[in-house]
């Protein structure tokens, strides 16, 4: 069973269990009530009226299935479940991966269930978040060339978003953002988290976060649309920023459906973000987007316009795509862009300097699977973007061998790639 639908089913089961318990309490109270006198012998007891039969409870539709066509092919589609236990290091698909000449990939760490977001601490610790399967935050420590994985927080609510700043680890869930102070000195006995911001909506659909501190020293986070396609209130479909003490909430981007990765150009300081577009319109429409923010408050189209030129068949009436910011790059239908970073290391060839490395998780609601890769996006002086394959080879026989989720530039210039499908992290390096 896929993790998202299982999460929702658990909530439904809990609610039903509560109702059942309440009903049982009523029955017990009736059992303890004084007995009614028996009818007189000459008056036969009236037959009780037959109990009304209740229709069986209808199972709640998971949010990802809203709008799904009732065709056989579509009804078979569901989010791709990650492995319930991490893949053993010697079984990881490194030999299948393909890279440009001069690059090599190796297993950097394994046994990290549901590995998603990554951040590196000042002392070299690599912090790793998880999402649907694990609900944990990990710390990976290098012990003389061998990596030890520690769990520093667990039983968290979809803790995808993490950030490291001045010794503190920030963790975002759909409900709040907290901070673990001086964390690298306390990996074996983590401190209690300090609440930074607790006014997030808390929705499960597109509620998980990617967080990052911008060049202005503020903490940026998205609040995705709480639906596949809808016209939500002004609490949703935006990227916000706050001061590091949680004050000063303001909107930076509007019309954003669901971003799980963004970063700032090292030279221009412009914000770029990936955006996952709506489902169930078509297998080939709309394309997911890479967007460039040139000024605060720009609107990128959701839910009225998709991929810059396609009006939504439900919410696009009376709207014009020319009124919204067009994507800098279309990156494929349902390709699922997640983590992204501008490359500012020194190891890779000069052509990669200031390029974006972007993970495409790969579609689940598309008959033909593709992506599950890392692409390189090159940006010219005018902001024009073009995309090239970088790490590929993880789709075989229309199945995913792995699914890249995030990328991170290490201090030595190498690139880490997390794979939540296998619970692993790979290291890409370059040498002539």
Topology:
Blueprint (H helix, E strand, L loop, with lengths): L2 H29 L40 H4 L27 E7 L8 E3 L5 E4 L7 E7 L2 E8 L7 E5 L2 E5 L4 E4 L13 E4 L14 E2 L5 E5 L14 E5 L7 E5 L7 E3 L6 E5 L11 E7 L4 E2 L5 E2 L3 E2 L17 E5 L3 E6 L13 E5 L12 E7 L5 E7 L3 E2 L2 E2 L3 E6 L5 E5 L4 E7 L2
Parallel strand pairs: 13-17
Antiparallel strand pairs: 1-29, 2-3, 3-4, 4-5, 6-7, 7-8, 8-9, 10-11, 11-12, 12-13, 14-15, 15-16, 16-20, 18-19, 21-22, 22-23, 23-24, 25-26, 27-28, 28-29
Short description:
This protein has 2 helices and 29 strands. With 432 residues, it is mainly beta. The protein is globular and about 60 Å long.
The CATH class, by name, is Mainly Beta
Query: Quick check: average pLDDT?
Result: 89
List the domain count as a whole number.
1
* Count of beta strands: 29
Physical arrangement of strands within the biggest beta sheet: 10-11-12-13-17
Helix content: under 10%
Largest sheet: 5 strands, mixed
Q: Stretches where pLDDT falls below 50 for ≥5 residues?
A: 1-45
Indicate the CATH architecture.
Answer: 6 Propeller
Give the helix/strand class. mainly beta
- In the CATH hierarchy, the third-tier topology is known as Neuraminidase
End-to-end separation = 45 Å
Shape: globular
| Rg estimate, integer Å | 25 Å
CATH superfamily: TolB, C-terminal domain
Estimate what percentage of residues fall within beta strands.
25-35%
What do you see in this structure?
By secondary structure, this protein is mostly beta strands. The protein has a single domain, classed as Neuraminidase. It is built from two helices and 29 strands. The strands form eight sheets. A five-stranded mixed sheet has the order 10-11-12-13-17, with no helix packed on it. It has a four-stranded antiparallel sheet with strand order 1-29-28-27, with no helix packed on it. Strands 2-3-4-5 form a four-stranded antiparallel sheet, with no helix packed on it. The radius of gyration is 25 Å and the shape is globular. Residues 1-45 have low confidence and may be disordered.
């Amino acid at each position: 069973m896929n993790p998202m639908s299982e999460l929702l089913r658990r909530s439904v089961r809990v609610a039903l269990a509560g109702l059942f318990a309440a009903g049982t309490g009523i029955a017990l109270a009736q059992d303890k009530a004084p007995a009614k006198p028996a009818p007189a012998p000459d008056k036969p007891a009236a037959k009780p009226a037959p109990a009304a039969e209740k229709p069986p409870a209808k199972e709640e539709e998971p949010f990802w299935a809203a709008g799904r066509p009732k065709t056989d092919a579509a009804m078979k589609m569901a989010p791709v479940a990650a492995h319930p236990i991490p893949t053993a290091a010697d079984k990881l698909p490194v030999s299948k991966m393909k890279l440009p000449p001069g690059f090599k990939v190796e297993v950097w760490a394994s046994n990290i269930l549901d590995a998603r977001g990554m951040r590196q601490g000042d002392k070299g610790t690599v912090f790793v978040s998880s999402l649907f399967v694990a609900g944990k935050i990990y710390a990976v420590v290098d012990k003389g060339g061998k990596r030890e994985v520690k769990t520093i927080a667990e039983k968290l609510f979809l803790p995808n978003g993490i950030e490291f700043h001045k010794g503190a680890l920030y963790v975002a869930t759909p409900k709040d953002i907290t901070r673990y102070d001086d964390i690298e000195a306390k990996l074996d006995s983590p401190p209690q988290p300090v609440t930074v911001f607790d006014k997030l909506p808390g929705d499960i659909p597109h509620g998980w976060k990617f967080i990052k501190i911008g060049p202005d020293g503020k903490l940026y986070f998205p609040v995705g649309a709480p639906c596949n396609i809808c016209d939500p209130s002004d609490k949703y479909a935006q990227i916000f920023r706050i001061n590091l003490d949680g004050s000063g909430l303001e909107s930076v981007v509007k019309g954003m459906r669901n971003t799980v990765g963004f970063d700032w150009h090292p030279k221009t300081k412009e914000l770029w973000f990936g955006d996952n577009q709506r489902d169930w319109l078509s297998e080939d429409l709309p394309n997911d987007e890479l967007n460039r923010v040139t000024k605060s408050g720009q609107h990128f189209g959701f839910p009225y316009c998709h991929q810059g030129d396609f009006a939504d068949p439900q919410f696009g009436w009376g709207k014009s795509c020319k009124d919204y910011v067009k994507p800098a790059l279309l990156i494929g239908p349902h390709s699922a862009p997640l983590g992204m970073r501008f490359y500012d290391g020194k190891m890779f060839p000069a052509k990669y300097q200031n390029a974006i490395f972007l993970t495409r998780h790969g579609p689940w609601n598309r008959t033909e699977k593709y992506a599950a890769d890392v692409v390189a996006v090159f940006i010219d002086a005018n902001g024009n973007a073009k995309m090239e394959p970088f790490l590929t080879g993880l789709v075989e026989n229309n199945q995913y061998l792995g699914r890249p989720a995030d990328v991170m530039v290490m201090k030595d210039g190498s690139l880490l790639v997390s794979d939540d499908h296998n619970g692993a992290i790979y290291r890409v390096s370059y040498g002539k």
